[in-house]
Amino acid sequence: MLKARNLDAGYGALKVIKGLSLHVLPGEIVAIIGANGAGKSTLLGSLAGLVRPSAGLVTLRGEDITGARPERILASGCSLVPEGRKLFAPLTVRENLELGGYAIRRRYGGHLGRRESEADMESVYELFPRLREREGQLAGTLSGGEQQMLAIGRSLMSRPELMMLDEPSMGLAPLVIKTIFSAIVSLSSRGKTILVVEQNAKAILKIASRGYVMETGSLVLEGTGEELLSNRDVQRAYLGKEYGSIADEREGP
């Protein structure tokens, strides 16, 4: 589905991503974990067209999208749910969703009818019933969890094959995080391919097909979600001392 090879990217003279290579297969949930400042958001930005790579190759379903404009990448079936949600705060839930469907209407030359748009919105409401209840409410007045649901829903309105999510659990309460991660699993079961940058390493690795560990602009470790959860270095660095102690007790002397 998505491949990056020897990717370099950054901001002016500052190189953040250095010779990075990764792949995401159709139907996978792939996690990227790492400390703050590792370059995770810059990586997603370079894949989504928001940050122009200075070297390397990015392909989506075999099509070269290296350095392509964000609207072209979105029209090709790859959407980004950005860190911080970036909603249109003065607009309602419904209006935000309608704007999310703008790209798909352009892709089909305006022939996507109102019935199809309503069906897409209904699918979002089925995934997040709370949004149906808040349909006429301004996005800026929603709770943090509701805003994250809306950001994901807005992304879904473009009918992406690949969804990239940047820190979807940031600032959310544990019960809301559970709802968001359940939605990610549900989307995967419906055939969506998902690439997630996430600070909550334990939660995302539990549902991920595979994961990468990122440090200072490079990927230093790769494995299945289960393999990374059981890796001692990952436990110490990203899962906390308590998690490592529990794992030690289970293994025994």
Question: Can you give a write-up of this model?
Answer:
With 253 residues, the chain is α/β, with parallel strands linked by helices. Helix content is 43%, strand content 25%. The chain has a 6-stranded mixed sheet, with helices on both faces. A 4-stranded antiparallel sheet has the order 2-1-4-5, covered by helices on one side. Strand 9 (210-215) and strand 10 form a beta hairpin. The radius of gyration is 18 Å and the shape is globular. Mean pLDDT is 90; it is low at 241-253.
Name its key features.
single chain; 253 residues; alpha/beta; Rossmann fold; six-stranded mixed β-sheet; 11 helices; 10 strands; globular; disordered C terminus
Rounded mean pLDDT is 90
CATH architecture annotation: 3-Layer(aba) Sandwich
Strand order of the largest sheet: 6-7-8-3-9-10
Order of helices and strands: EEEHEEHEHHHHHEHEHEEHH
CATH superfamily: P-loop containing nucleotide triphosphate hydrolases
Q: Beta-strand level of the residues, as a percent range?
A: 15-25%
Q: State the oligomer.
A: single chain
Q: Please state the structural category.
A: alpha/beta
Regions with little confidence, pLDDT below 50 for 5+ residues: 241-253
> How many helices in DSSP terms?
11
Strand count, sense and barrel status of the largest sheet are:
6 strands, mixed
Distance between the termini: 43 Å
Give the tally of β-strands: 10
Name of the top-level CATH class: Alpha Beta
| Shape by Cα distribution | globular
Radius of gyration: 18 Å
The tally of structural domains comes to: 1
- Report the CATH topology name: Rossmann fold
Helicity level? 40-55%
